[in-house]
Amino acid sequence: MFISRVACVVLLISLSVHLSAAQATLLDCLNATNATVIDQSSPAYSTQRLVANQRINRTPAAIALPNSAQAVSEIVLCCRKFNVSAVPRSGGHSYEGYSVADNSVVVDMTQGFNFYEPQGDTTAWAGSGIRLGSLYYEAWKEGGEVFPGGTCPDVGLSGLLLGAKGGGGGNFGIVTRMHLQMYPQPNTTTLIYLEWPASEAVQVMQLWQAWAPTAPDAMTSNLQMAQYGVQMHGLYSGPMSEANALLQASGLLNVSGIQYKQYNEQPFIQSALDFGAETTGISTSSPINLMLGPNVTEWHNSWKAGSYDVPTALNSTVLNLMQQAVNQNSNGWIQFSAYGGQISRVPSTASAYAGRYSLYNIQYSIGWQNPSDTQPSMAWFAQLQQTLNPYMVNSAYVNYIDNSLQNWETAYYGDNLQRLQTVKQTWDPTNFWNNPQTIPLP
Ligand SMILES: *[C@@H]1O[C@H](CO)[C@@H](O)[C@H](O)[C@H]1NC(C)=O
Ligand SMILES: *[C@@H]1O[C@H](CO)[C@@H](O)[C@H](O)[C@H]1NC(C)=O
Ligand SMILES: *[C@@H]1O[C@H](CO)[C@@H](O)[C@H](O)[C@H]1NC(C)=O
Ligand SMILES: *[C@@H]1O[C@H](CO)[C@@H](O)[C@H](O)[C@H]1NC(C)=O
Ligand SMILES: *[C@@H]1O[C@H](CO)[C@@H](O)[C@H](O)[C@H]1NC(C)=O
Ligand SMILES: *[C@@H]1O[C@H](CO)[C@@H](O)[C@H](O)[C@H]1NC(C)=O
Ligand SMILES: *[C@@H]1O[C@H](CO)[C@@H](O)[C@H](O)[C@H]1NC(C)=O
């Protein structure tokens, strides 16, 4: 369930900006722009260089916070002049921390481009620095419109959209704002939590994968296998009675040993808050907490994740391997997110993301806080990847970007890769915009 229309304003480099000869260093040059500049001597540097995933530990030359497209342009020209990378950052949630690089200038959009402007029709302009939680909150405050995005409030809108729609993510330039199609708030929503013991994981998963991808558009759900059990989280746009009838028909409620079952019929904004609380621990007491999100500086979360698109149902052999893997480490989990619905109605060649035809996406992940857990966690991840690869197709979701993925170009973009490479050649023939997994030149 993503977006029906996004117009992206891609920054074109203005050649009319003249840099004075007095700007002897990169910092002089940045200082002459209208952006706030945090260099390595600034007190804010130690927190501003961080991204959400604290596994990433990089030291950029500076962080620049522009408040106009003109300032963005000037920053990029400084980077070109002094031959350093410019790295756009919005949510700072790239799984491999690709919004910060050593010796680069991070162009942080979160202060100057954190806006939401309803247009009086059914559309709104959103700045590329806005996070999903802020977008949900602002849209609710402005009159209750909704936008179908993700469940994590701290994820940046532009990273999410460009992964799905346009192959953005630092490939071609810096987006400053996006034109969004908004939707009327559902009359009510039903938030669904179900949980079974781990011993039922394979049976639950078999029922879920036969049901969730073809469930009505109003129902979306994901399933999570972990050592403690198997959980389903769902959101239904409608009343509890209808949600329950759909779940009854799926057979899921007949699986023995169900240890938790809760339906909350409530406004959309409360469901968005509850999902946010689940992923980030924010308080569900007020919608404004969606906007505030977690304080990533205090969060200290590290994680490693990868993904697979799944075009045909997995059999019990594969599901048992997954179940065994999550049983081995209490920090690991495997999440299955249903596709179908509007995702599958958009042709795979209509946007950058090629995996739309899938039944669902698997995200396999491990999270930790203590640095001594890094090595065993990364080893668990690598082992699971090696175990699953033979059963999976070469297709993955770029927003769960993974530097250990083999053949990542075709996995992320499939048959769209060649077209994207042509775009790259046209707009960035010197590969100025690059990280380890940006679209390569043809
Ligand atoms: C930036 O420029 C201002 C004057 O506009 C100056 O006071 C300040 O020292 C400069 N900062 C750096 C880091 O050069
Ligand atoms: C520079 O930034 C300030 C706010 O930080 C803003 O008021 C001003 O209009 C900006 N100037 C230009 C030329 O963009
Ligand atoms: C720019 O930097 C890259 C590596 O950071 C280097 O390979 C290249 O030679 C540099 N170009 C110039 C013109 O200095
Ligand atoms: C939502 O409520 C309005 C007003 O009661 C009603 O006209 C509309 O049909 C409802 N929509 C749905 C999808 O139930
Ligand atoms: C679930 O169990 C009930 C009661 O035993 C039965 O009537 C129903 O057919 C079952 N539903 C499915 C989908 O298997
Ligand atoms: C986040 O936490 C850090 C460290 O405790 C603190 O300095 C900073 O002010 C906090 N930021 C916000 C927005 O609360
Ligand atoms: C499950 O599927 C895999 C191929 O994906 C196959 O190798 C295996 O034999 C199948 N197992 C069963 C029980 O059908």
Automatic annotation (TrEMBL):
Residues 1-22 form the signal peptide. Residues 56-293 form the FAD-binding PCMH-type domain. It comes from the Eukaryota. One of its GO terms (molecular function) is oxidoreductase activity. Keywords: FAD, Flavoprotein, Glycoprotein, Signal. Belongs to the oxygen-dependent FAD-linked oxidoreductase family. This is FAD-binding PCMH-type domain-containing protein. The lineage of its organism: Eukaryota, Viridiplantae, Chlorophyta, core chlorophytes, Trebouxiophyceae.
